[in-house]
TrEMBL record, chains A, B:
Keywords: Isomerase. GO terms for molecular function: isomerase activity. Pfam families: Cupin_2. PANTHER family: 16.7 KDA PROTEIN IN WHIE LOCUS. This is Mannose-6-phosphate isomerase. Gene3D superfamilies: Jelly Rolls (2.60.120.10). It comes from the Bacteria. InterPro entries: Cupin_2, PKS_Associated_Protein, RmlC-like_jellyroll, RmlC_Cupin_sf. Residues 41-96 form the Cupin type-2 domain.
Length: 117, 117
């Protein structure tokens, strides 16, 4: 991983939605890119905040009491323990950061495998 | 901080070089934007990796044995303990992540104060 990662280039290497790819590692966190489309499911992470940076498209992060709308170049951190549902309007590309080993669905049984791009 | 941050907008709120501004907090890390211009000095962080994402311009991260060139949309993580010198070609905008309280110069005596944008 000790090389630079071009995010756009990494995003050309896969088409799967909601399947993050690790592009770098920072202090036991995975720096990942992902393609989203449509709604994900409601979930939360009890042990970690959830970092989103939108690279392309428009992403709503629904919280139980409000919706955060993110356009390219916008960042939002969902605090640990807070239920949220990402809803992607069309195809959306994001950079996300989570501690290595965090299940993306909030549940190890349903989590996507962690894949290095 | 529990609101979205538009990185370009945050970058319009200051002009100082090498003076990172915190735009969000993730698990005791500061998510920051900074403007760089010209060379910084050689330094290292013994306790943390150093995450760079270039948003605008061209940044060289000189290591003792090679130089990493980063253009917009490119990420590099300098591993902890590795000496490096950022050199910005003209005005460069970056997103960086460091544990809250990390001195940007690697030395508390010369570090820029941490400022919330």
């Amino acid at each position: 991983m000790n090389v630079p990662a071009n995010l756009a280039e990494k995003l050309t290497t896969f088409t799967e939605r909601f399947s993050p790819r690790t592009v770098a590692v920072y202090n036991d966190n995975d720096i990942m890119v992902a393609k989203l489309e449509g709604p994900y499911h409601w979930h939360k992470h009890d042990d970690t905040d959830d970092f989103f940076l939108v690279l392309r498209g428009t992403l709503d992060i629904e919280l139980r009491d409000r919706t955060i709308r993110l356009n390219p170049g916008e960042v939002f951190v969902v605090p640990k323990g807070v239920e949220h549902r990402p809803v992607a309007h069309g195809e959306v590309h994001i950079l996300l950061i989570e501690p290595t080993g965090t299940p993306n669905s909030g549940d190890k049984a349903t989590a996507a495998p962690r894949i290095v791009a």
